[in-house]
Amino acid sequence: METERLFAAAKELIGARTDYPFEGDRDTAVFRHGAGKWFGICLYVPLKYFGEGAGSEYCLNLKCPPDLAQILCGTYRGVLPAYHMNKTHWITVRLHSDVPDEEIVKLLNLSYDLTLPRAK
Predict the structure, then answer these.
(1) Is residue 90 classed as helix, strand or coil in its secondary structure?
(2) Average pLDDT for residues 16-30, to the nearest whole number?
(3) Helix (H) or strand (E) holding 62
(4) Does residue 60 belong to any structural domain of this protein?
(5) Which distant-in-sequence residues (6+ apart) come within 8 Å of 19 by Cβ?
């Protein structure tokens, strides 16, 4: 999935915004709800995390129910337990992999829904 399409899909979610919270880092983008809670983060992941050589790849971390995460990790080579986050509740999606764009958009929407503030 091209990053422009991903960022456009995130922008379409009600109240969502993108920011760059890490000083001096214009590559790591965080998708947030209006209240500021994260529902996704785009970041460079070292290729060694995927068992590959040197360098890095731009990826997307999303919240995901553990049972679905297990299925996705078994279905797509481009979905793994999250890099640098809770590996039970978050996944890393390789944007240029075997994961269809439509599936990435569905997972983005799911992560948004899972991280919405709950009514008290």
Answers:
(1) strand
(2) 94
(3) strand 56-63
(4) yes
(5) 29, 30, 32
Written as six digits, the tokens of 35 are 């209240």
Q: For the beta carbon of residue 114, count every other beta carbon within 10 angstroms.
A: 13
Q: What are phi and psi of 6, to 5 degrees?
A: -60, -50
Q: Which residues contact 46 (CB under 8 A, 6 or more apart)?
A: 55, 56
What are the tokens at 7? 């960022």
DSSP 53: -
Q: What is the percentage of the chain residues whose pLDDT exceeds 70?
A: 98
Domain count of the fold of the chain: 1
Residue 95 belongs to a domain with what CATH number?
3.90.1150.30
Cα Dmax for the chain: 48
Comparing CA positions, the residue from 60, 62, 59 lying closest to residue 111 is 62
pLDDT over 90, % of the chain: 85
pTM over 0.85: yes
Q: Is the dihedral of CA 88, 94, 99, 100 positive or negative?
A: positive
Measured distance CA(32)–CA(19) in Å, rounded: 8
